[in-house]
Amino acid sequence: MTLEEAKGYVLRRAKELGLEAELLFVENRELSLRAQGGRLEELKEARQGGVGLRVVAGGRVGYAYTEELSQEALDWALEEARENALLSAKEGAIPPGKPLGSHDLLGEGLSAPLEAKRQAALSLEKALQEDPRVRAVLMGGYLEREARVVLESTQGAQGGYRTGLAGLMGSFVMAEGESRKQGWEVKLGKEFHTLEPGRTALEFREKTGRLLGAKPLKTGRYRAYLEPEAMASLLMVFAQALSGKAALEGKSRLWGRLGERIGSELVTLIDDPTLEKGLLSRPFDAEGTPARPTVVVEGGIFRTFLHNSETARALGQENTGHASRSYKGTLGVAPSNLYLAPVGDLRLTEGVVVTEFMGLHAGANPVSLDFSLQALGLWVEEGEVRHAVENFAVSGNLLELFQAVEAVGNDLDWVLLDAAYGSPTVAVAELSFAGA
Amino acid sequence: MLEPALLEKVLGQALRGGADFAEVYAERAKRRRMTVRSGRLEEALSGLDYGAGIRLFFGTEVVYAYTNDLTEEGLLEALETLLRAKGALGQVDGQGRGGLDFRKQVPKGLHAPQIPYGKKDRRYRLERLLEAEAGARIAPEIRQVEASLLEWEAEVLIANTEGVLAEERRVRTRLFVLAVAQEGAEVQTGYAGPGKSVGLELFDLYPPKAVGEKAARQALTNLRAKPAPAGTFPVVVGPGFGGVLFHEAVGHLLETTSVAKKASVLSDKLGERIASPAVTYIDDGTLPHAFGSTEMDDEGRPTERTVLIEGGILKSYMVDRLGHLLTGYPMTGSGRRQDYTFAPTSRMRNTFLAPGDKRPEELFEGIEFGLYAKEMGGGQVKPGSGEYNFAVQEGYIIRKGRIEEPVRGAMLVGKGPETLMRVVAVAHDWENAPGMCGSLSGAVPVEVGQPHVLVSEIVVGGRA
Fold first, then answer.
1. Residues B274, B277, B279, B282, Cα dihedral to 10°
2. What is the Cα A35 distance to its own chain's centre?
3. Cβ contact (<8 Å) for A390 and B387?
4. Tens digits of per-residue pLDDT, A28-82?
5. Which residues of B touch A79 (CB under 8 A)?
6. How far apart are the first and last CA of chain A?
7. B408-432 per-residue burial string, b: 16 or more CB within 10 A, e: under 16
């Protein structure tokens, strides 16, 4: 069956079986081109899609999905979802829905000939080589992703949107004397024509090249300047504590702290799924709740958890429209474009510039919010970068870190992880550094 | 899943399109995930993954496409997309070749489950999860427990223009318990996650109650632990998942994906001493029912046991087809991918440090002050610089040769080649443990392992 036929079939069958059902149809398209040694090394072009089901039977919720769109597979998925619901003890409901319209968030963003994209990959790879310190290039490449999302429920929701991304990526090794550093960089945008391979390759090289000749860092407590990429990756960990689902499951340290000060007054956190150039903007969430900006932390005061209809109801709070679900998953809560609002006026005096954290999935605990992470960085003295530092780890707790923020820059930049996270450079009064 | 005649048609068309080599990888996988919290089933998900990937080689240039449409039209369309893209980018010579002589490989069922996916009902699973959850409720400080069961049963088919036609049924099961302990404002976690290439007999191998208890004990230990000290110390790494240290510090550095492009600090070092003589490091895809075991790799080659380092000398890299073409090293059955949406690259399977001759106690003797990293979390590495890290999930201070108070939040950081030289003693008490490894070709199940190991110095990230 085609996706359209499958959708009609499942909704019809669900109604016949007396089930409330919400169907999420996703079709992903991917193109990637990787260059190495002045020629194209790998080309990938593909499509993937599937049907995700959330059904309510006997007031309980169950889930299933299938990528095979035969009648047999669709029947199997519907039956599995129903059985999962019947065994479950968690009450739920498919929220009442309405027509949501058809939205195009991508437009002509990716419309360039394949040859132009190939040239972008080759130019990036070539430009990466234009530095005698570059010893090896794993690859320089171009990638694009496009998704078509359709939501439809027996309760009246119906709508869809198309979105996508284009980007340049590079992985390379730079060396100077005995010192070696590896860069692994991605630069993303919403449109192909905004990509600039030459300039991006230069940025990639500068980011890694400045880390060469690193010296060990002495164990101690120093002021830290967290660059946008480093701070944004910490926001990914913090976002889990902001989730109404984590709160409901007893896994958020922010539970019971609404309205309290949880950070310095310089800390304002906003999730905005409506940002025009936002990497993960969306017109509505995975349950069809229309998107709107949410101020999560305002001047250090914790204003709201992020909620879907289920967590909002269970906790008696307002639904913020943060339902997330892939067709392969269960209902969750996730930000779209979550960022720390820029302030400006940040000057380096003395301390460590942290350029990147490594090992986030293991070294940062989203429940306790403790972190102990490998980092790469630069030593600053008298307002100037003196040399790179390496072989050290930074540790603390995210809540303490937010309290200790003493300046926030205006150089907002984004990284794409499980959602899009943005931050300017942030100065933190003191963090614990372990090294030599 | 796919008929030989159809495979022959697709592969033949690929050769006529100018490819030197073509491969079809198809899979149909059923998955199930059930999660219990607060004494009840809160989430249950079933899924069917279904798709195929087509990979073509033009010399060492690779083109890859995947689709969920496994009909003749669907596969030929995916192939056409690739040939068109290739044609737009370079020349296609249009050389055809004769029919294929498939050598059909019959799976031996080396890792076949005793209790397959379809056996036992949901209620049986739910009861085991409730046992695991109840097992973790050992103290009033345990405020939240989450027990999840993950089941996966995949049929995989691989055919290529060298005549390979192989199928395998892969079954994996994992139980995962997270315990959250709280006292006042202090919140800490513990977890346990046994997994094997088995069916529901996993519950017999790892009784759910004991798994829950292990997660809870770790959470309670962390609750009374002080922040780890910061600095450079001798570290004794515990057996089992402790092997993630070497997985990060050396394993990834020996994959041809980096090695072939000189983007690993261990490129071009075959036959050289790269580790202390105490280090023998093995990647074995054949261990019965291990989490990272399969009968064939994801390129259709039989998996094997590969000695990577013997007595500190580098003996082999991990080599997939592309790595072989780029380096000339013989293939080691190491081509792996998460699923049909990824082309395979060289990856680890079950990788472990071989046992030494010391008693574990001997490793602690003579340590004035150091860290015992008893249980490990995950880690990460940059192969091009060798910089790695991994997190200690349960750690203790070693003082005057004795294991003393628990410490939490330790992150070990270093450079792989330096750490390899600093392995001063290896005990005889070897164990393996399961995990997921993420890299270029996605997240694949692996095991890591080792006995107790003493490293003379590592940077320990904690509170300064």
1. 80
2. 26
3. yes
4. 999 999 999 999 999 999 999 999 999 999 999 999 999 999 999 999 999 999 9
5. none
6. 62
7. bbbbbbbbbbebbbbbebbbebbbb
For B286-310, write each residue's pLDDT tens digit.
999 999 999 999 999 999 999 999 9
Residue among B41, B61, B341 whose CB faces A48 most closely: B341
Reported ipTM: the value is: 0.93
Which pLDDT does position B87 carry in this prediction?
Answer: 81
* Interatomic CA distance for residues B259 and B264, integer angstroms: 5
Angle at CA of residue B197, ends B192 and B203, nearest 5° = 50
For residues B1 and B273, give the distance between their C-alpha atoms in angstroms, rounded to a whole number.
47
**pLDDT given for residue A167 in this prediction:** 98
Query: What pLDDT sits at residue B206?
Result: 97
**B47 at interface of A, judged by CB pairs closer than 8 A:** yes
Give the residue ranges of chain A where pLDDT is below 50. Answer: none
Min Cα separation B163/chain A (Å): 24
State the residue for tokens 């990293």. Answer: B373
Q: Report chain A residues whose CB lies below 8 A from the CB of B385.
A: 173, 180-182
Q: What is the pLDDT, as a whole number, of residue A228? A: 98
Interchain pair B390, A180: CB under 8 A? no
Residue B104 has which token pair?
A: 């059909």
Shortest Cα distance, chain B CAs vs residue A270, angstroms: 26
What band does B96 get if pLDDT is binned at 50, 70 and 90? very low
Nearest-angstrom CA–CA distance, B293 and B107: 13
Check A172 against B49: CB less than 8 A apart: no
How, if at all, do strands A215-216 and A384-397 pair?
parallel
What's the rounded Cα separation, in Å, for the pair B391 and B413? 9
Q: Classify strands B453-461 and B231-237 as parallel, antiparallel or unpaired.
A: antiparallel
Cβ <8 Å between B389 and A373: yes
Contacts of A433 in chain B (CB under 8 A): 230, 464
Which tens digit of pLDDT belongs to each residue from B213-262? 999 999 999 999 999 999 999 999 999 999 999 999 999 999 999 999 99
DSSP output for B366-432? T-SEEEEEEEEEEEEEETTTTEEEEEEEEEEEEETTEEEEEEE--EEEEEHHHHHHTEEEEBS--EE
Residue B34 pLDDT exceeds 50: yes
Q: Which helix (H) or strand (E) holds B166?
A: strand B164-183
A212/A385 Cα distance (integer angstroms) = 13
